[in-house]
Amino acid sequence: MKFKESLFSRRQFLNGLLGGWLGAFLASILYPVLRAIFPPEKEPDQVILVSSDYAGIPANTVKMFAWGSKPGLLKKTEKDELVAFVGVCTHLDCNVIYLPDQKKFFCACHDGWYDENGTNISGPPPRPLRRLSVTVEGDNIIIKKEGAT
Amino acid sequence: MKPIGSLKRIMAGLAAWMEERLGIEAARDFLRHKTVPQNRHTIWSYTGSLLLLFFSIQVVTGIILAFYYRPTLEEANKSIARIMTEVPLGWVIRSVHFWSATFMIAIVFVHLLSIWIIKSYRKPRELTWMSGVFLLVFTLAFGFTGYLLPWDDLSLAATKVGTDIPRSIPVVGAWMTKFLRGGEDVSGDTLTRFFSFHVSILPLLVLALIAFHVYLIQKLGMSLPVGADEKEEAKRAIPFWPNFVFREMIVWLILFGVLVTIAVFWPPSLGKSADLMAPAPEGIKPEWYFLFLFQTLKIFPAKILFISGDTVAVSLILLGGILFFFLPLLDNRPAGRKGKVITWIAFAFILYAVAMSVWSLLG
Amino acid sequence: MMKKSGLPNLREPDGSCLGSPPPFLAVDLADIDVRESTPLNAPGGVSSRGAKRRGDLRLSDNIKKLIAAALVIAAVILWAALLGGQSAEAMVPALGANQTADQQEEPKVQAEAQPEKIVAGPQNIKEKTATYVFLGWMWISIGVLVYVLRLKIKEVDRLHAIKFFSPDRK
Fold first, then answer.
1. Is A66 at the interface with chain C, CB within 8 A?
2. Which of A97, B136, C21, C61 could form a disulfide bond with C25, CB atoms 3.0-4.6 angstroms apart?
3. Would an 8 Å CB–CB cutoff place C108 in contact with chain B?
4. Tens digits of per-residue pLDDT, A1-58?
5. Of C55, C37, C72, whose CA–CA distance to B44 is shortest?
6. B86 close contact with A: CB closer than 8 A
7. Which CATH superfamily is domain B37-283 in?
């Protein structure tokens, strides 16, 4: 198909090219700036704990470890199994505490409650506590993101 | 069609609402009528806007660096190492900051010497020159304070020497050294003090001075060459927007490209964390823009008659600075006069600075 | 290097004004005369082609000056880079010597085993590639933008020369 006259003038074309390319150029400069401002999340792939440090904990208690810069909670259930949670309230990021006598996790910020399996049961928390997978290999307890192998 | 029409109406209404309160139209009207003379001196007027470009780059990269930098004895060096190795593209950001500073100082010298030689500082532009001299001093102060922040051997030694020099100034010297160091010696307090200078005090001062400087340039217009015919010049002048800005953009783009390319291929490295108790590294030299002053201090003997050589040298340098600051008042002849002596002094100064720098590097 | 390209250019203005004008000032003025007279001679745009060509001439002259200025600045920057680089180079062996001296005297202080010098650079091959791709894109962009800007400068200068916006001006 042929047009009798061009749809836009040379002037418009030049202005569009200048503005468009300049915009794209500036955006491409902005990208490395944003990369530096927002570094990637540095959540650990796994945390290795020494079994002996955690061997003595009684059932229905919790011992802490560092999951990156968050508190990790290693809990021995009443069946002597080890489970691990990220000890951060799913409501507004406060750190939670385990209350053995009530068998509940408690977040003091907004009165949030989770049961012993980390399920949210009362208060504002929208989701259960995040669980981590626990495996025991020889002398080490290896804690990974849930789903990771 | 309809929603676009109403959107346009809303935007027009918003623009009118803003205009009624802000009165930006006056500024836009000024910009529409602003012209830039076109003559053999015009090329030098590109240096001013280039300085603004590099200053803006310094602000942006500097803010990002400050997000990760920690101004303490224990962590300063480590945090820079972290910026260089952990923060995504942190090494580029630091390198651009480093090279942009170098570019900026180089262009400051070009800007200033060109104005000196074409004598744009003459009436009525005396205050523009004087604010410019302050901007020069603050720019050098940016370089000096920024140099300490990585806290490696080089920066510590350079700061020790640099902050000790004012001590030779009669009467106020010792007090100035104490002020700069935050105590008798260079210590962790010096580091936090320099950080505070570098990221808050100097930027505030420089921003205020740039505003003043640029305001004066807008108010007084660009200077014309000595002996130029004003009517001819007015006829030849081109509009600032867009004719001149498009030309400026060419220079900006090319120098931005050069800056980023150099920054990628020659990123600055980082020495090991400074040890306050370690002996100074041998052959210590300051940054390139202080070399000629450094060498000047070096050539003076320890004692001249009964006064210490340093005092004489520092006093002479200070006197030179003061004369330099008052240049528009010393050379207050009508704009039509040529001022050959002033021009030759400028060239003599360039020659001196270059020769001294080379000597300092070879010696 | 700075002096070679910078000084002759600078010395000119001073000697020029009262004595005989330097050659390139004369070119400039003659050029301007022609440009200014064009709209008067040809109000109907009869010789607009000629005006255009002269406009180009003036522009290329300007670009030449621009390049000269960029060269001067580049020379100064190069000079600065050289000085900066050299003074940094001079440090490195001294630094190393100092380090070993330290280790002999006080091995305990150095026990932390900090690397002597951290060299900056891309952290992995992906970043390295990305950096080079960015540099390529940047220079292509600069090339295109400078080309378009030159066309735009021609256009706006022509508009200015024929006083296209004259009702707006007083």
1. no
2. C21
3. no
4. 666 766 678 888 888 899 999 999 999 999 889 988 988 777 788 888 887 777 778 8
5. C72
6. yes
7. Cytochrome Bc1 Complex; Chain C (1.20.810.10)
